[in-house]
Amino acid sequence: MKILNTPYSVIYFGEDSYIKKKNLFLKNVSKKILLVDNISKKNCLNYFLSKIDFLKKYYIINLPSGEENKNIETCKVIWKKLLDINADRKSLFFNLGGGVITDLGGFACSVFKRGLNFINIPTTLLGMIDASIGGKTAINFLSLKNEIGLFNFPKGVIIDNNFLKTLSENDLKSGFAEIIKYGLISDINLWKKIKNLILKKKKLIYSYNLIRNAIKIKNSIIEKDPLEKGLRKILNFGHTIGHAIESYFIYNLNKKISHGHSLAIGMICESWISYKMKMITKKEFEEINMIISLLYDNIKIYNSHISKIIDFMKHDKKNENNKIKFSLLKKIGYSIFNKEVDLFLIKKSFKKTNMINLINFNKF
Ligand SMILES: NC(=O)c1ccc[n+]([C@@H]2O[C@H](COP(=O)([O-])OP(=O)(O)OC[C@H]3O[C@@H](n4cnc5c(N)ncnc54)[C@H](O)[C@@H]3O)[C@@H](O)[C@H]2O)c1
Ligand SMILES: [Zn+2]
């Protein structure tokens, strides 16, 4: 077991963490509640229970999987169950699942009786390197992603990459987009490694080293700015456009596009904007565009839909005084935040990425 101590929670790596950190699960704990979705239940629950057989008694809450279920209705299911079992302030919540479960479970138990403790056991790559570790919890509301939420750090996080064995290629690639982001915003050597892997068409291997490296990058940023007053905003690189595309696909087209897939597109668009705003070079943009689009499928967007996607950006949490604010690249491996971007550039960026096939796209 390796340990990464952060000021807010401790992160344990490896399958021996369960038994070695038995106390984390048991000490001063009254009721134990496990939150899963139907897919993490199928793929991860038995294994998890076999590792924590010392727990004896626990309650399971099983929710339908998927981003569309990260909402107030599923929170109500959780709160009702907590009331039914008479959960008190010493109850402990285990979020066993991907980012949807850790975001939703983290939020639901943080506001129940003004806060129950929780432990995250992320079962997707995205959950391990991002969603489960930064203290952000949230649900979606009225078609807006993560609109209702709060900062609250888990009591502990257990990273066990055995869970990745059952994860689909699509979900692995989704998580990998966040690793690409870490390279682009703050670690040029990581970007170079990624570039090599993709160019040589090497199988991506999700070792503890790679995962720990990614977590360390995120943590080093959060330590300086846990509540996203400034620097932490750089973690949103690619997300202003990415989130808008993700929301638009779910809520307007009723189609799912993974978080990482939309982030990959967002990163290319926002790299182009960085280039046009004279921060990165044309060569750097072209490299980013080429490398990322080798790994992810193209999507189709209709001309008439672009304004709807931009409407989603108007609700981005980084905005100030109704202005859309971006985190952009100053160079590869270094980023800045709070950059206001002209609407014309945002629209045009959709045309510049290899990953979007524009249909009936009018020239600007
Ligand atoms: N809080 C944060 O800081 C933060 C950061 C990044 C993303 N997020 C949120 O995370 C969510 C995306 O996370 P995600 O990609 O993990 O989504 P997810 O939780 O929907 O998981 C993706 C799919 O994989 C399934 N799954 C989970 N574990 C599995 C396993 N071991 N084997 C097979 N299938 C498994 C899930 O049931 C789901 O169908 C979004 O809601 C996003 O907003 C939050
Ligand atoms: Zn993300």
The total domain count is: 2
Name every ligand kind in the structure: nicotinamide-adenine-dinucleotide, zinc ion
For the biggest β-sheet, the strand order reads 1-2-9-6-5-3-4
Order of helices and strands: EEHHEHEHEHEHEEEHHHHHHEHEEHE
Please summarize the sheet with the most strands: 7 strands, mixed
| Alpha-carbon Rg, integer | 20 Å
Structural class label: alpha/beta
**Strand portion:** 15-25%
The count of β-strands is 13
Count of DSSP helices? 14
Summary?
The chain has 364 residues and is α/β, with parallel strands linked by helices. The protein has 14 helices and 13 strands.
Describe this structure in words.
The structure is a single chain. With 364 residues, the protein is α/β, with parallel strands linked by helices. It folds into two domains: 2-166, Rossmann fold; 169-359, Dehydroquinate synthase-like, alpha domain. 46% of the residues lie in helices and 20% in strands. It is built from 14 helices and 13 strands. The chain has helices spanning 17-20, 22-26, 38-51, 72-84, 99-111, 125-131, 169-186, 188-199, 208-224, 239-251, 259-276, 282-295, 306-313, 343-352; strands at 2-5, 10-13, 32-37, 59-63, 92-97, 117-122, 136-141, 144-151, 156-159, 299-302, 325-331, 334-340, 356-359. The chain has a seven-stranded mixed beta sheet, sandwiched between helices. Strands 7-8 form a two-stranded antiparallel sheet. A two-stranded parallel sheet has the order 10-13. Helix 4 crosses helix 5 and helix 5 (99-111) crosses helix 6 (125-131). The protein is globular. The mean pLDDT is 93. The structure holds nicotinamide-adenine-dinucleotide (NAD) and zinc ion (ZN). Zinc ion is lined by residues 130, 178, 239, 259, 263.
